[in-house]
Amino acid sequence: MSLDGRPGDRREGPSPVTGNGVVLEDSNRPALAPMSSQRLRLIPNKDHNPDNYDDMELDFSSSIFTSLERFLPPSMLGMPRHDKVKFMTEILLKYLPHGERNRVQKHRDYRQKIISNYQPLHRELYSMHPATTFVAPFLKAVSDNTEESFRRIMSEPSPGVFTFEMFQPQFCELLLSEVENFEKWVNEAKFRIMRPNTMNKYGAVLDDFGLETMLDKLMENFIRPISKVFFAEVGGSTLDSHHGFVVEYGEDRDADLGFHVDDSEVTLNVCLGKQFSGGELFFRGTRCDKHVNSGSHSEEIFDYSHVPGCAVLHRGRHRHGARATTSGHRINLLLWCRRRIFEDYKGVGVSELWDRVKYWAASWASVTKDFKDYSYSTIMRDMAAAVN
Ligand SMILES: O=C(O)CCC(=O)C(=O)O
Ligand SMILES: [Fe+2]
């Protein structure tokens, strides 16, 4: 497949709206060129300040639309948000295989059904309140925002594995009780819920019952600044989407979790409680995608015992698993933080861009093959197709 041969797409014209220009959404405006004849640009318009789509009902995460907007043809940049969304959705859906498209739609209906029927127990959890969520030293470190301030509260017991105290006990309790309340509702309503991934038979996706916005803030304002310092080479500074869930172990729950890598650039894993023994995380080093299954060196072997309120932060590709929880009940919050491909396009040439898309698509295909989760690999394949 070549990126050359469609010179029209390469033309970089001035955009009708620049900077923070306010665009009024006028449904009576004359139609511009038919959307279907328009194509994405190969090179994003770096000067364009994209709209925010957080408040809209969308088929894909709002961050995809914000990122993709820089690739819109110049004549479309000033259009009302609804029109841009329509155009971008058409492109994204066009390149999704049929089964995938059905799945996206089904998942959207599923979430909608939960959100319109489930009554949250602790509404205060659904927006981010840093002062009641985090312990003071963590808040201070993030507000100082330097490597030194992070190192002051973090240990790095094994290269690339960072541990630190993060949540207040009261926050853990509230979240545990909200999860319990959600599960009670699921049982009473005989609602079948989707599990966080194919590895866990228990647990719940927090994003599916309304916590997505709060977790987005958690990632953007707290995890991204730390990842920018410690995980820059896997895109730590441009994390822009997440998969947030809880896993549950113990009697009548999952026992352990096999050796794996996560479908994330950076993973935050925080123990919420309750009382348990066992359940240690074991780490076995990071590998490039070609050597995911090769053996471990002794210096890479590291075991970690979970402590309620405390977090572990590591690269998604850092190989790990969890030993059996031998008594009690352990619940952990997992935030798989991801970076979509679009930011990579900044200032790179077309051939390099294409190489990167191929590289990411290949690497994520190998990492995600065990996960049914619609995510990165699909979007990247779509985008590769869309710019071609
Ligand atoms: O049980 C744990 O603490 C680890 C969970 C985990 O690695 C995952 O869900 O990806
Ligand atoms: Fe994991």
TrEMBL record:
Q: Among its keywords, does the record have Isomerase?
A: no
User: What's an example of a GO molecular-function annotation for this chain?
Assistant: iron ion binding
Under Pfam families, the record lists: OGFOD2-like (PF25238)
Query: Where does the source fall among the domains of life?
Result: Eukaryota
Listed Gene3D superfamilies: q2cbj1_9rhob like domain
Q: Which cofactor does it need?
A: L-ascorbate
Q: Where is this region: Disordered?
A: 1-30
- InterPro entries this protein is in? Oxoglu/Fe-dep_dioxygenase_dom, Pro_4_hyd_alph
Q: Which residues form the signal peptide?
A: none
Compositionally skewed regions (Basic and acidic residues) per UniProt: 1-13
Q: Which UniProt keywords apply?
A: Dioxygenase, Iron, Metal-binding, Oxidoreductase, Vitamin C
**SMART domains reported for this sequence:** P4Hc
Give residue ranges for domain Fe2OG dioxygenase: 240-339
Instruction: Output the PANTHER family linked to this UniProt entry.
Output: 2-OXOGLUTARATE AND IRON-DEPENDENT OXYGENASE DOMAIN-CONTAINING PROTEIN 2
Q: Return the protein name.
A: Fe2OG dioxygenase domain-containing protein
